[in-house]
Write a structure and sequence with these properties.
With about 400 residues, this protein is an alpha/beta fold. It has two domains: about 5-50 and about 305-395, Alpha-Beta Complex (Aspartate Aminotransferase, domain 1), CATH 3.90.1150.10; about 50-295, Type I PLP-dependent aspartate aminotransferase-like (Major domain) (Aspartate Aminotransferase, domain 2, 3-Layer(aba) Sandwich). It is built from 14 helices and twelve strands. It has helices spanning about 5-15, 15-30, 50-65, 65-70, 80-95, 105-120, 135-140, 160-165, 190-205, 270-280, 290-295, 305-320, 345-350, 380-395, and strands at about 40, 100-105, 125-130, 145-150, 170-175, 210-215, 240-245, 255-260, 335, 355, 360, 370-375. Helix 5 runs parallel beside helix 11 (about 290-295) and helix 6 crosses helix 10. The radius of gyration is 21 Å and the shape is globular. It starts with 5 loop residues before the first helix and ends with a helix. About 45% of the residues are buried. Bound molecules: pyridoxal-5'-phosphate. Pyridoxal-5'-phosphate (PLP) binds near residues 109 and 252.
């Protein structure tokens, strides 16, 4: 056996359940046709980017000096790009962001790795709420930290403040939130953010050191029924925002996002430098030049994300009629119903027999549930209900 890094080998060989299902789906599609496979496994946006994205890319390719366009930008991102994004944040959230607080990243994943790498000393803890995006554990542990998981509030998928208060200790370096949430679709209200901020301020003061709040926001623009997603730095000064255009502009493959280090953060410049250093150590160099510019010019546009709300309505209503218990998502393109048996892994295995590709909740730290990624054409969401009905009938017959 080659003498390689054991942890890296494990990460490289154990494919994630989601990726595995996605690959299984591709195989099934080849066998029975795309229209007969209900692939709810992966969070690839199903709607195209707005026209303006391609038009902007083409215009830049035609009009900009190619040497400049394809050159390295500054490590933290092109200055004009950061100015434009800071302006947009000021306009949209009434928050005085400075370009020097922004660090352009390779998606939200790159942003999160920059934050964890920049903040964590070996053994320091990051508090995460279940259900959670499984890559968090990989990113936190790669940065030498420890993920401390708070069990899910399965009634509403909101923050369980009692458990949070119990979990915070002098070893807590950061709390990580993700709203709108993957996989539950929950959105934290202003009241929730205020209460969280209050607790973190009080504990930071008690321990004489800041507890950072990292807010992972790739789904900020996908919130339903006009619901507002609070802009967290306005409520808590020691906040780092991890943003991405992967979902809002349907550009996950272009790897573009940013970190915003909140203006009023204690020792702001030191934290910013540490985030920059972590990104340097990870070899990110600078985010892709062309798409930094495209995203800055399209920062206030989104794909037509209304299809996700349509799909949510169809599936929540349909699944409840079939007998599933599901908390209505307020955003994203995920929902997280209870499985009809306790063993979510066995349930999702059985679902495959009906060509329903859904992900066990265990991987998200919340067994007894399944994640459905409804970023699919609406007619497929509609037709999938017959397959869910057959799955439910199987359990009814065998109970
Ligand atoms: N955070 C969450 C909650 C996600 O769901 C994802 C991707 O699905 C990411 C981060 C990573 O996003 P990106 O593609 O922008 O790196």
């Amino acid at each position: 056996m080659a003498n390689v890094n054991e942890r890296a080998l494990r990460l490289g060989t154990q494919r994630s359940v989601i990726r595995e299902l996605f690959e299984f789906g591709k195989k099934r599609i080849a066998e029975v046709g795309l229209e007969n496979v209900f692939d709810f496994s992966i969070g690839n946006p199903s709607v195209p980017s707005p026209e303006k994205v391609n038009e902007t890319a083409i215009r830049l390719l035609k009009e900009m000096d190619p040497v400049t366009l394809h050159a390295y930008t500054s490590a933290q991102g092109d200055a004009k790009v950061r100015e434009r994004i800071a302006d947009s944040i000021r306009r949209r959230f009434d928050y005085a962001a400075s370009p020097d607080s922004l660090y352009m990243s390779t998606g939200a994943a790159g942003a999160l790795c920059g934050c964890f790498g920049g903040l964590l000393n070996p053994g320091e803890e990051v508090i995460v709420f279940a259900p959670f995006f499984p890559e968090y554990r990989v990113f936190i542990e790669s940065a030498g930290g420890v993920m401390k998981l708070i069990p899910a509030d399965t009634e509403a998928f909101q923050i369980d403040f009692e458990r949070l208060e119990e979990a915070i200790s002098p070893n807590t370096k950061a709390v990580l939130i993700n709203s709108p949430n993957n996989p539950s679709g929950a959105v934290y209200s202003e009241e929730t953010i205020c209460r969280l901020s209050q607790i973190l301020k009080e504990r930071s003061a008690r321990y004489g050191q800041p507890i950072y709040l990292i807010t992972d926001e790739p789904y900020r623009e996908i919130a339903f029924s006009g619901i507002t997603v609070p802009f967290v730095p306005k409520y808590y000064p020691n906040t780092l925002v991890c943003y991405s255009w992967s979902k809002s502009l349907s550009l996950p493959g272009e790897r573009m996002g940013y970190i915003l280090v909140a203006e009023e953060m204690e020792e702001h410049d030191v934290v910013y430098a540490a985030v920059a250093g972590a990104s340097r150590a990870l070899g990110y160099v600078s985010a892709p030049s062309l798409f930094q510019r495209v995203c800055a010019l399209c920062a206030e546009d989104t794909s037509d994300v209304s299809v996700y709300e349509t799909n949510r309505n169809i599936l929540v209503r349909g699944l409840r009629e079939i007998g599933f218990s599901v908390v209505e998502p307020q955003g994203t393109f995920y929902m997280f119903p209870r499985t009809l048996i306790e063993d979510d892994v066995a349930f999702c295995e059985k679902a495959r027999e009906f060509d329903l590709l859904i992900v066990p909740g265990s991987g998200f730290g919340c067994p007894g549930h399944t994640r459905i990624s409804y970023c699919v054409p609406t007619e497929r969401a509609e037709r999938s209900l017959a397959a869910f009905e057959k799955l439910a009938a199987y359990y009814l017959k065998n109970s």
